[in-house]
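Deviation from plan, reported transparently: S-adenosylmethionine complex.
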Amino acid sequence: MVLPLCFCCIVSAVRLMRIEFGGAFADLLNEKGKGSGDNEMGYVERTLGFRTRDLSDLDLRLVTDVVGGTIRWRRYLNHLIGAICHDQNTLNSMEPLLLQILRIGFYEIVKLDMPPYAVVDENVRLAKVALRPGAGNMVNGILRKLLLLKEQNALPIPKVEGDDRTQARALATLHSHPVWMVRRWTKTLGQEDAVKLMVWNNSDPSFSLRANIGQGFTRADLIMQLQELKVQHEPSLYMDEFVRIKTGMQSVIQAGLLTKGLCSVQDESAGLVVSIVDPQPGETIIDCCAAPGGKTLFMASRLDGQGMIFAIDINEGRLRILKETAELQKVNSVITTVHADLRALQEKHKLKADKVLLDAPCSGLGVLSKRADLRWNRKSEDMEQLKKLQDELLHEASMLVKPGGVLVYSTCSIDPGENEERVVAFLQNHPEFSIDPADKFAPAEFITEQGFYASSPVKHSLDGAFAARLVRW
Ligand SMILES: C[S@@+](CC[C@H](N)C(=O)[O-])C[C@H]1O[C@@H](n2cnc3c(N)ncnc32)[C@H](O)[C@@H]1O
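Because the crystal trials were delayed, the predicted structure below was used instead.
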């Protein structure tokens, strides 16, 4: 069977299945695709018999929007589907591909405002071919009910009322986040900022590019290239090497700016952590959790060819990426990679450094706008385990600092439990360290009362990140 069909729908559906179910998703597509793990297009052709073509840039953007949005809005979409089916059990027992097709259709209608009858038509055809005619009829019935409710402005949306728990559940559905996150943020930020944070997490992420001054490529050079590519951009307000872009990443990739090592994708909030370390030519620096290398490479570009960064990571594959990127960006002469568990490092290597950065494994609660699926993968129980690991790693990292040297602890989290509280706990057990206020290294608007660096999606429209600069007596 060879059918022309909306490629974006089918590629989005396959990609979503892959993200939600990993390798097991092949079995879910009518047992047709076992063993295939390559790109979606080949997979679609082989298993469903659709004729495919290369996706255009426009198609690719739509697929990215649909996949990212359908993941972000999963809880909200499930709520609407459940309400329209009048039965949560129908939703819970629905076959995964059918549910995925419905979520895509709902997302396209409710959030993307795409032409409704085209959306119904495409998703019905997809369900008929990928599953069976009856599934197509079901999709048709449910999507048409949704359209009617939308036209009547009568979508079944939960009201934020009642006790704290009920309000948190309603907010979690309205803004499509896990309830535990809403409860945590309402407690630490207040309801108004918790809502602002969720709105940010659901918005299209913007990206920053860092010009690689280590290769003599300045921000002015980068801006010139972006102008030639007609990519809209604006210089960072905070960092000399950074430029923000909202769209146009495909053009940047196709022009080879990343593969030539001329620039990297890096959020300014992560760049500011490097400013807190303040790497200087000639210094020895240990980056304890370095891979895939965003901060190592930026630090290396500031060394001007003099000094050494020992980039340690437990993950060999990610460390390999760091090494390869360092070569591309021509900063490899000042980087030595060390594949090791930081907790066992002292036994093998007798390293000591002027500066030590611990960019600790964390919940990633500051970067949910860029990591669409992370909110569903994180569990509240993770937080306790992470804190324990952070304490262990912080103690190990502190042993690597020379007397008079600097230790920077950072995360990409906005959770006080992973940030300020970890530093306070560390200082209680390590009186040889004290806080070096970060105001000398980052703009005042990022500095907390305790002298730490903290970026916030709500306050700064950047990813959330944290860094404490500590000195050893
Ligand atoms: C937040 S990521 C680091 C990101 C990196 N600094 C960057 O800017 O690209 C945390 C890293 O810690 C590493 N890691 C976790 N446990 C570790 C351990 N016990 N020893 C060394 N590295 C560890 C992980 O493999 C992961 O690459």
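The pocket of S-adenosylmethionine is lined by residues 289-295, 312-315, 318, 341-343, 359, 361 (CB under 6 Å). We consider this an acceptable substitute for the interim report.
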